[in-house]
Protein 1
Amino acid sequence: MAAPARRPFRLAAFLERESVFSWLMLTPPVLFLLAFLGYPFIYGVYLSFFHKEVARAAEFVGFGNFVKLNNDPIFWQAVRNTIIFTGVATVLKAGGGLGMALVMNQSFKMKSFARAMLLLPFIVPTVLSTVAWQWILDPGMGLFNRLLVVSGLATTGPSWLGTPTMAMISIIMVNTWRGLPFFGISILAGLQTIPVDLHESATIDGAGTWGRFRYVTLPSLLPVILIVTTFSIVITFFDFQLVYVLTGGGPANSTHLMATYAYSLSMGAGQMGLGSAVALSMVPVLGLLLVLLTLFVRKD
Amino acid sequence: MAKPARSKATRRDFLKLAAAGAAGVAAGPFISRNAQAQPKTITFARESSYVKNFDVHFQNVMMPAYEKATGIKIDYQIQAAGGSAVPQLVSMVENKTGADVAWVQQEWLYRDALVDVSDIAEEVGRQQGGWYDEIKRLSVDKGKWKSVPKGNIGQLMNYRKDWFDEAGVKSFPETWDEFLEAGIKLKAKGHPFGMSMGHGFADNYSWLYPLLWSYGVTVMDKDGKKVALDSSETAKAVEYVKKLYKEACIEDCIGWLDPANNKAFLTGQISCTNNAYSIMVSAKRDLPEMGKVIEHGLNPKGPNGQRYHALVPVTHGIFAHSKDVKAAKDFLRWIMDPKQYRPWIASGDMYFAPYLHAFDKVPEWDIEPRVKPFQKVLETGKLTSWPAPANRQHGEVINRWIVIDMFTKAITGTPTKNAIAEAVSQIKAIYG
């Protein structure tokens, strides 16, 4: 009996094997992620345990930076601001996005055009749109205050960025404006997957518009809303550009977020270690927010 | 049958393409290294100038001249103005790559990464009448020059002469009290002052620090060892600013970043602010009518009878990571040579005022009478660390807006005593 002939090794055939090819395809993105996300993250974690000033050698301080932050009132103010900013903006975006999706789900003229337009805030680069917002919020020349004055609603409009409360309201408003389409479009996609017969049977059972929304639409949408909200919390929590361009964290630190504070410590004050510690502190705070969200949804 | 065959071909094509791409990427560094070896270049990084002609002169006149004389090309990297230069410089220092020579903004952050340029600075000083004393406290570190001062961006009160006249304020106020009185009159006429107090990088401290100093207060003592801010005079200064804000200023100004006061002034919303003369430059170019009625006033005197200004220094340094420090030094020496330096400074209409006494009486100061007051800034100007050393702790106080926020906290409701106490405790924590 002749021994079976060994098939000669062919590189092309080897590479085309499913198990090899899939890893081949996966390697570049994994390397990319490791290089541009993994490395900075690990370096950031490493730095946060060191006293590291620009152009100087790092000196291990253990939890020294975190102890320092614990005694820093500006840090705690930034934590509070970040939670308020993220919380309020996310609620507004979720509520507004749901409304937007419900409206967009109706049939009306130019529906596709309206849908495309609504995506604009999300598409325009944040820095660019925020500079536009700077003009819109200008006290004398800005669109908002001009409208208020021209319509006779006020003799002079408010100072949108000039008082701590208004500045916080303004950055939340701009963030909401920017993030609303993300919710709107995602929820709209969810809405379109709800089978029509569910609505029909609910109607037969005597449910009105509210009843159908409360007992059919909302429960069906909940998984989508949960995912979108989680994403949004993460993105909002790390928001930097908007505040950096609009207020720089002022007035009197009233809009300083953890991201802007980490930046001002690292890049402005040259305290790379301390800045990294602020950035790393965002992880547990963000984790806490996400856990609270999950608990809230479960309870619901 | 045809489908799998096509799919195979695509997969193979893709692999080939990917392999070719990877080879290209791998060869890239070698190609570029060889390419770099040929013409020697020096990379010079600077924040873009508000006076465009200054950059244009450098690019069109100086760069070709240097290349002609030495065969070395200058790669002029213009960084966007408005706060992005410092992060770029910090990243160059940390990564030990990037520019050879740079406008080393906030050099106290990374002096250790700059080479000793004492030979150049001392030679330039000897040649050109000597350096102003105050700038040495920035450029000289532990007895060595770590940067060569290039010029000062003067900050003064920019005001609308026509509106001041209308309100019966015939000359610019001499004292802070008169300044408040004038502000009240102008606000009543619908032309409030707009004094920046937000998280910007010059227009806020350029009047708040001089104001503090003229109340006899400094942030630190001379050695930088003891916090000096905790004083009854500070409380008086804070009370003054609260009053000034409430009675004379536009509400928005406590949230302003650096471009905001320019915008407010040019759109006719405010009658006075502290700024460089870039407002006048923009007005003369785009709003000629307004350009005619803008004047510059000195910072008023305080209760101690003294008048102060804050320096906004521009200095050039050489990074230790530069591959050819000698070539970089030759270049820096060349740009500071009066043959190049003087026309360069003149091209910027003295926007960058040299810290050299040889320029005290040059006719360039007379190009525009409204520029002349900026010369006074050199005489009465102090670094923001004054009288303490300009070290990184002082930079941290500035960049975390500790003193600025002391004022804004008081304005937004924190009792003055607490606002000062909070600032003092933060400064103590920074200085350790």
Note: Residues 208 and 229 of chain A are 28 Å apart (CA to CA).
Protein 2
Amino acid sequence: MSWKNIRLVFLREVRDQLRDRRTLFMITILPVLLYPMLGLGIVEMMLTFSEQPRVVVILNADDLPTSPALLDQSGIGEEWFENGAEETSKLRVLAERTPQAGNEEKSARRPRRGEKTDEELLSVAHQLAEKIETLHGLRPVADESMEATATPQPTSAESPESNTSSAISSADEKAEAASTEAKLTAAQDDISQQFGTSGFQVLVIIPKGYRAAMEAMQREIQTSSSATTGVDAKAIATRVPPVLVVRNSADDKSMVAFGRVQKALQSWEDAVRKFSFEQAGLPKELQHPARLAWIEVALEEQVAASVWSKMFPALLVIMALTGAFYPAIDLGAGEKERGTMETLLISPAKRVELVLGKFATIMLFSTATALLNLLSMGLTGQQMSAVMSDGMANRVSLDFPGLAPLAWLVILLLPLSALFSALCLALATFARSTKEGQYYLTPLLMVVMGLTMFCLSPAVEMTPLYSVIPVVNVALLLKGLLLNSASSGNLVVYAIPVLISSIGYSMLALWWAIELYNSEDVLFREAEKFDIRMWFRQLLRTKDAVPALPEAGFCFILILMLQFVAMTYMKPDLTNGDPGLTMMRLIVIQQLTMIACPAVFMGMLLTTSLRATFRLRMPSITAMALGVGLAIVAHPLTVELSQFLVEHQVFPELPESARQVMGLMKTGDKPTWLLLLVFAVTPAICEELAFRGFILSGLARGGRLAIAVGISSMMFGIIHMIPQQAFNAALLGLVLGLLAIYSRSLFPAMAFHFCNNAIATFHAGEGGRIVADGVFFSRDPDGFLRYDAPLLILCAIAGTLMIMHMIKVVIRDQDAKRRGLVPDFRDLTKGEEVIA
Amino acid sequence: MIRVQGLFKEFDDPRSGIFRALDNVSFEVRPGEIYGLLGPNGAGKTTCLRILSTVLRPTRGLAEVDGINVVRNPEGVRSRIGFMSCNTGIYDRMTAWEMVEYYGRLYGIPEEKLQARITEIFNVLQMNDIRDRLGGKMSTGMKQKVSIARTIVHDPPVIIFDEPTSGLDVLVARAVLQAVSSLRDQGKCIIFSTHIMREVEKLCNRIGIIHRGKILAEGTLPELADKYQQPDVEELFFDLIQRREEEVRNSGTNSEA
């Protein structure tokens, strides 16, 4: 591989992109201009935006007590609000009271056109007050918190079903109740409507004689506390008539205003309480008996960091992806469209060199886009926070996070960019035209955004499992590091798996791109008209002996979807009858219908040789022995590996359903043959037919057996869904695939699968009667049989030997085929027998 | 030196199953001669030439350029050939000089030698006025010249032309043909595909008539005229094509019966 060529291609592509004015604009000018423009726009809007003050009408305000005074000259006193003057400016209080001298100018407010004058507001308020008091009188206050709704609550007097023994016996009374009901409904409709058009958002009705009653209460408390006779405190308190505060919860404006008024009134009530306590000679600490104190430990910069820790990862991901995508389209499908692809392909540069040169170009643009956008956004944010009004700036500071997080940002951008660049290049090469390429952007963007959004939720944290999932790992790491807190120091340890796995994925994507560059099919594909009838007909007409690659893929997807269906629709009814038997029946049904049937039906429909597809040949004795032997040898290794991973929290705990199934395997009351049938025989047959039969045969058509075995094991793992089982299954899948290819038969694989499951069942069932002897076996605290190092080493050696033997034989066979000594499986198209 | 023996190429067509583009094609081209591959559209000319340029891989058979197998050592082949077809375009945002220079560098020509070489080519092909013109701003004729320059910048011993005059006007086509002819005079081994009789008559030393993937006849013009008793190339061509069509139709009806 010549670095010189890669550099040549890279430099040419970069220069080419930079000569495109559109690209330059998108990448440099747009971000630099866009964010300041947006920022300016937002500031403009904020300046022109002024929250209209909400109107609160207080009727009969003269009857409010004077100390503590709720109202001052202009409205509700500033001291009752948390944020003082700022909040009072948001509420316009129209209090019905005798004007004090010198206040005439202030109270006479000229209304704007369309608004009601103060007199109109007050008159409407009076009307409403009357109606509400009537309604309120009809229904007494239910609970102590004085919460009442104007809408009817169903009471026993109304619901016909309950209390049939109560007074509703005669038709007259029923009719009366019905008419009262009708009157009530009509009344609240009326009130609701009028409130909506009233022009004010909250109505406070101070009852007549409120002040007098309050003063009387305070006097009585004072006198009664100095005297020691028993006093009916409740009687005193309830003599004060209630203040009605009316609002409409369905209306946002009313709710907002109500929120403010409620807080003010509550702090006023606190002051009244304090005053009363003082009057009563009670200690003021009694007001807050629980003595709660709220303490804040976040530093201001930490609050600011929180804003960026959410925004930056998401933005980084979007920018890196879009920055990669458009150049990729140009360099991939665009080359094909413009007719320069063939010119490039006949140059002496290797395909690898072409791909790497293009990849480097795309990565450059992706990183540059992301960085420029973030820089521009950060600076704009800082500028904006300087311009914005004080109130908001106090709560959220948009200053840049420190230097260290910024450095992490740049470092983590690189693997992300690499992954996206490689992926986009591969997709763009795969596309037949630039239009088709652009269509690939939307689903890619959705998937990536979905993953990022998932990461931003505070509940999601970095775990070993997440540190190797693409996109998620970088987003989580970035989020954690940007939080700037002490705990982010621990996250640095995850940087290694994140970087390595990201590089690994990039390399996979690059490898795919190189494959595409080597595939004449992709390079010279022209847009076709897709006719579904023709496609279907052709599918059924041209049947090969074994399935084609896409058919294998489709089989897998079908099985996966059926599993989902099973999860939602086939919830076992574990209450009737024997739950154990029900679960077992369910397992067998699932295996047969959702794994074996799709594979077998597809085989019958789409292939000409079931024998070849499902490898139904007689294996050699050696092969069977290897199958059984490997199963025995693999078991202790897999058990210990699983335990190790669980202990190190690589995988989460088993979910409930899995534990149930495990529990079933333990129950001693089930006959052995039944357990074996359900947990060993059925999966051995069904899963092997599907994964080492149909799917592996299809994947092997791609030419590379190692990759076919790898992919079929991954699929096998994914089907198991639970991470622990999935990992286990994937590993065993590799061995099973190798067995199937080596023996050219499905039966050794089935034997392995059967033995493995059977041993596992016995192991779960308390490991039979094996006694812990301290050398090979031991028991852990839960009673599980565990395997010690000497046994593990023996098993590892035996297993390795067996596997290496099989690999050697397979390679020898492949070599013989390549040299033409044995017919190639590619001669399948002529209907010859497949060997692999 | 080009050698093709028993070459087969099959494509998977969703509509009709396997499509055989090349059916047992064999021919040779020696240095210093122009071999014309003559055939109607869809005959397999482009496929054959693409295989020679290593862009496609044969299903079966042998193809060698200068003794190097196209399947076993494609890079070796590519550094020894120049290839030009209507599908090998030039970049819109590169000037003529930059384009030829880029390919010269990819071919590994050392820098000073490259500059001298490009100057020479531009002089010979009379391209000095478009030296700094961007590809997107060139006329078809200019683009063809740039393509030719790109094709020969590394002085390859074997040059492959796939319908190089398609879509060109008379004057430009003539210039192209003159360039091809002078290359032959330099001792290059040239294979040239076309469906225009005049070009064949004027340029080619030997021709191969190809139709539906099969070579129907091969040899120098006098040889063919003698063999088929038909001095006019055009008539000869049509006769052979018709005969082949009948064969195909008969074999089709036979298989149905």
Note: The two ends of chain B are 45 Å apart (CA to CA).
